[in-house]
Amino acid sequence: xxxxxxxxxxxxxxxxxxxxxxxxxxxxxxxxxxxxxxxxxxxxxxxxxxxxxxxxxxxxxxxxxxxxxxxxxxxxxxxxxxxxxxxxxxxxxxxxxxxxxxxxxxxxxxxxxxxxxxxxxxxxxxxxxxxxxxxxxxxxxxxxxxxxxxxxxxxxxxxxxxxxxxxxxxxxxxxxxxxxxxxxxxxxxx
Length: 190
Known about the structure:
single chain, alpha+beta, eight-stranded mixed beta sheet, 33% helix, globular
């Protein structure tokens, strides 16, 4: 996996040298309300990074740190998950960003880089994005980039607190890509 970047962000393949920056960005507890992990503790960040590197080495998942070029610091992470080379598909997920950057151009720029790489370099046919049924902020962000809502997987996951989570599924297909790319590019600075 390679570095992906534009004028706003760099998506850097995760390495152990990023632990300090991830830990600093992950301190705000509001990040973890809807996530399957909680990285407010340094030891959990170490485990998270080590697990991410191991999964990358196994070819199963590919974690990136989100580096804000203007402020020269790590502000979150995003992953390629459920990579299936045979069927040319994957999932963009486990994305989290420090709350200071919520509703900013950061997420749009990240998705543009990730989707461009998937469709234009990897020549994939499908990218899926999913979120919890109660995470309305994430659903709005996914819909804002133009991903198509496919439905809800009922009783799909069990949260850290033991509650059941239904999962809202979205996708972008190769047939959608040119229209969605144009839409995203019109909104990169918003």
